[in-house]
Amino acid sequence: MTIITCIEDLRVLAQKRVPRMFYDYADSGSWTESTYRANASDFEKIKFRQRVAVNLENRTLQSTMVGQEVAMPVALAPTGMAGMQHADGEILAAKAAEKFGVPFTLSTMSICSIEDVAARTSKPFWFQLYVMKDREFIGRLIDRAKAAHCSALVLTLDLQVLGQRHKDLRNGLSAPPRLTLANLVNMMGKPRWCLGMLGTPRRGFGNIVGHVTAASDMTSLSSWTAQQFDLTLSWNDVEWIKRRWGGKLIIKGVMDAEDARLAVASGADALIVSNHGGRQLDGAQSSIGALPAIVDAVGGGIEVHMDGGIRSGQDVLKALALGAKGVYIGRPFLYGLGAKGEAGVTACLDIIRNELDLTMAFCGLRDVRLVDKNILLPGTYS
């Protein structure tokens, strides 16, 4: 029996159980992967101040993100093709998040559709939107999220062009996977995954296939998607989306102070400091490295969140100390999903919560809402 003690244990188990092309899709960055690595390694440079002889009774991690009460200031990030890490992956992750009391964000490029997740959960989740050239489809997608009672829209702005991910090209990534000899040999060694996939009808992009005339099946979807990257995307589009949506709007993909000020001007409720997990511009700054300047730039005019590189509750605490109101975990919950399904996502959240709680205590605090730079050692952060 494998004893799970940390996120790395879940990663190792997921690598054993998930076919290579889908594991690599989740656990990789673009080009040399320098930004992907920096996202995690830059957290290691930040050091805590340990305090002693402080009353540590009645500690709480409860907080809010865009006005929503959360069990801890952590949300599950939007991740494409989570339903290829484990059968019905988005449904299982959403159920785990709901039971735990943290937000789940469904990706536009999910395997399970908005309607699939809504039918199998009882509380509102968040929906992440990519802006495509087909504005009529985007409008319908927003309307579907509203009909499903999604409580926030996460608008991703850093995917006008696609960063080259070498592993995806080498593996011939597709959903469902192409049945090449190499893929068949690899999948034969993942019997749990294969049995799960055989037992579900959800193997394609549920939010798109059947909802777009030009993408009625997986063959036509590939050509349609390749033509949908919108090079003309602007802040005017953000204003249109905000009007169409009418609810809480979170802007994802902000890495520059000037863009952060534009996000404030757009009327968004929050922004996410994010470099897409190092999957877009390789050579960009790490998310945690960019966070302090963006917090300073907006001056409290908007709620600042961040994602990228978080692998522990200690990383969560460091991001909060540098001004983030909340953080998102992507790869950690995907590791849990690939390793053990819904139970693995719950294990991931338990690990993050326990590490966050204990580290906060060692730093002499009882309330996560009071975390600030005073818990960090001067000179170890920018």
Describe the structure.
The chain starts with 6 loop residues before the first helix and ends in a 20-residue tail after the last helix. The chain is globular and about 60 Å long. Strand 9, helix 14 (313-321) and strand 10 form a beta-alpha-beta unit. The longest helix is centred in the last third of the chain and has 32 residues, at 331-362. The strands form 2 sheets. An 8-stranded parallel sheet has the order 3-10-9-8-7-6-5-4. A two-stranded antiparallel ribbon has the order 1-2. It is built from 15 helices and 10 strands. With 382 residues, it is an alpha/beta fold.
Jot down its keywords:
10 strands, two-stranded antiparallel sheet, 382 residues, eight-stranded parallel beta sheet, alpha/beta
Q: How would you sum up the global shape?
A: globular
Strand proportion = 5-15%
Number of helices: 15
- Helicity, in percent? 40-55%
Q: Low-confidence runs (pLDDT<50, min 5 residues)?
A: none
The Rg value, from CA coordinates, equals 20 Å
List SSEs in N-to-C order.
Answer: HHHEEEHEHEHEHHHHHEHEHEHEH
Q: Give the spatial strand order of the biggest sheet.
A: 3-10-9-8-7-6-5-4
| Alpha-carbon distance between the two ends | 43 Å
Sheet of most strands: 8 strands, parallel
- List how many beta strands DSSP finds: 10
